Each structure stands twice: as C-alpha cells, then as structure tokens.
Amino acid sequence: MKTAIIGLGNIGSRLATNMVKGGQQILIADRTYEKAENMAKTLGSLALPRHIEDIVKETDVIILSIWFAGIQEFFKTYESQLTGKIIVDPSNPLGPDGQGGFKKIIPADQSSGQILAHLLPAGASLVKAFGTLGAESLAKGAFREPDRAVLFYAADNELAGQKVADLITASGFVPFFAGGLNQSLRLEVSGDLHEFGPLGKLVTLNEAKDLV
Fold first, then answer.
1. Strand locations in 69-180, DSSP E?
2. What is each CA distance from 145 to 107, 124, 204, in whole angstroms?
3. How far, CA to CA in Å, does 189 sit from each of 122, 160, 184?
4. Disulfide-capable partner of 24 in 19, 67, 85, 197 (CB 3.0 to 4.6 Å)?
5. Quick one: 83 exposed, middle or buried, by C-beta within 10 A (0-12, 13-18, 19+)?
6. Is the pLDDT of residue 166 over 90?
7. Averaged pLDDT for residues 174-202
C-alpha cells in the first residue's frame, strides 16, 4: 500500500524522516510543491514529492499532519475521492489562545478523532495515530534501544488499524492499540495517553500494558 504525509511542519517532517529511516517509501506534500521537493532532496530517494491532489489519487494511506480545521476542509474538498482510503489523524484540536500559547477549541469532553469520524466521507476508514508525542520526542524516541518507545493508536476498522500499526513500527516505535475511536480523547493533548497529559513521558511496551 502506498503511504503519504500531507503537511510537513514539526510533526509531519519528523514522521517523514522516521519512516524513511525505517525503509518506508512515502509520498509527501505541503501547501507548496517546493517545500515537499526540498524535503525530498533532504530525505533521499524514498521520499517522493507530490501535489496534494495527486496524493489523493495515488495513495492508500494518507497521514494528515495538518490542523484539525484543515482536516475538515480536506474532507470537504476530496470527499468523492476518499473511498477505500485509510485516513490517519494525528491532530489535536488546538488554536491560539491570544497570549502566545494554545487552547482547546472544542469542548473539553470532546475529541477531534470522534468528530472527524462522524465527518469522514463514506467508504473511508479513520485511524487516530502519531499525535501522542511532541516533535522532539518523535525525534529522540524513534528507534530507541534496547526498549523501543510506544506510540498509541485507536481504530474502529481492524485492518486499517493494522496497516497503521505497521507504519508505526517502520517509524521506529512499538504500536499499541488503545481501542476504538471512542478512545480518541485519551490520545489527545491532556489525555492520559498523551505526552502532554498525565502520562508526561515516553513509555515502553511493558509500561503501556499497565495503562491500557
């Protein structure tokens, strides 16, 4: 299956770097083709730059490393072309707080994963993954030895979840299934399985088993 990352900011660029290091070929895109092309030159032959519309046509798994609102717009724009696709949501529903920081832009008891699951175009599958760690931990924690760090994921579709679990492995982490998309809140900022929540750190597989 062909995999793509749309959005090459702090998280997306790190995911791309980790996947290439793990031998995974990926297609990459950003708002401008030039940014994707420059990153592909840095990463080497396993990273292939594309326009966003071409990624939608060519790939089976699309990691949307963009803001929560941007994912909603992506669904509207490409609704008719997402049948059969696996959409990966690493988003946290955050926005500027007006004081130089960020705040949650949806009610505290709601998750972006569950909202997006209801907005998902028919025939596509959603997996919540790659959003439980900050960019620095994605960089430092990947391919850690001897005990690799865990990345949690949630999915309602078992096959889609397994495909994304394989990508987590390729990116240098151990995949850990947290449950269905109704567990998305736990995987987002302030959730108990998020680095910037009660968890507060990278965890190993044995530590994760005590949490889920």
1. 86-89, 94-96, 102-104, 125-129, 150-155, 174-179
2. 39, 36, 11
3. 28, 23, 10
4. 19
5. exposed
6. yes
7. 94
Q: Extract the runs of DSSP E, i.e. beta strands, from the chain.
A: 3-6, 26-29, 47-49, 61-64, 86-89, 94-96, 102-104, 125-129, 150-155, 174-179
Give how far the C-alpha of residue 197 lies from the chain's centroid of Cα atoms, to the nearest Å: 18
b/e per residue 41-55 (b: at least 16 CB within 10 A): eebeeebbbbebeeb
Tracing tokens 């008719």 back to the chain, one arrives at 80
* 141 three-state secondary structure: helix
- Report whether 85 contacts 124 (CB < 8 A): yes
Q: pLDDT at residue 109 above 80?
A: yes
- Average pLDDT of span 21-42: 97
Is the pTM for the entire model greater than 0.90? Answer: yes
Structure tokens given for 123: 């025939």
- Tell me the pLDDT tens digit for each residue of 43-68: 999 999 999 999 999 999 999 999 99
